[in-house]
Amino acid sequence: MSPNKIRPKMPPAQRAKQFMPFAALTGFEDALLEQEQAVHPRRELSEEETERLDLRLRSLGPGDPVRLTLYAPDGYFTAEGTVVKIDAAAKTLLLTDRAVRFHDIFTIDG
Fold it and tell me: Which H helix or E strand runs over 70?
């Protein structure tokens, strides 16, 4: 474009478009919303509940079916599975589809 030519005036709607925000990081807003969700506090077990849970863990063995109530920051949930291994050193219960930390177990049924 030569310096002597004048550009035609841009319509206001077009002009506004060039200053509109855009999402440079897709999914960023969703991630922020997730972080804003309320975190549910962990309910601490009494000594009796802890002992009962410990005895139940000790009675489990490979192949036993279990139904667990587990803690996660977004709330408690139920998981079912079959015990594959109990790793006392790592304090982990390995089921067929997941590893569960002892600390996250609230109840054991089954």
Answer: strand 65-72
Is the distance from CB of 40 to CB of 47 less than 8 angstroms?
no
Residue 40 to residue 71: CA distance in whole angstroms: 9
Query: What is the pTM assigned to this prediction?
Result: 0.62
Q: Are 65 and 110 in contact (CB under 8 A)?
A: yes
Domains and CATH numbers, the chain: 47-109 (2.30.30.520)
Query: What does the radius of gyration of the chain's CA atoms come to, in whole angstroms?
Result: 28
Contact 23, 29 (CB under 8 A): yes
Per-residue pLDDT tens digits for 31-55: 777 766 667 788 899 999 999 999 9
Alpha helix (H) ranges present in the chain? 12-17, 28-36, 47-59
